[in-house]
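Design a sequence for this backbone.
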């Protein structure tokens, strides 16, 4: 059995009986500015059983709203992440580590 741990900010850690099997952090890049999503100034988090959602905004990315959803897989180890943006500019990039 595997678990994915999240909290009030969009960061992920996957755990199983052997320990951590992975981390995920997301960042937004516009030009030379790069900001981790968990460091955005405005983060609204919502939980429903088995699912997590965050709605993010930051004045450094004027007009941009990012919605991130996450859930565990139906079977096996891992988790799924969905990122949707409104107001993104053509040169904006989503980065992950």
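Sequence:
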């Amino acid at each position: 059995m595997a678990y994915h741990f999240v909290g009030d900010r969009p960061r992920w850690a996957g755990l199983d009986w052997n320990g951590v099997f992975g981390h995920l952090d997301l960042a937004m890049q516009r030009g030379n500015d790069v900001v981790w999503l968990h460091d955005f100034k405005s983060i609204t988090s919502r939980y429903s059983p088995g699912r997590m959602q965050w709605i993010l905004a930051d004045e450094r990315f004027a007009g941009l709203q990012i919605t991130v959803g996450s859930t565990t897989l139906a079977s096996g180890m891992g988790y799924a992440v969905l990122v949707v943006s409104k107001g993104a500019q053509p040169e904006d990039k989503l980065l992950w580590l």
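The two ends are 24 Å apart (CA to CA).
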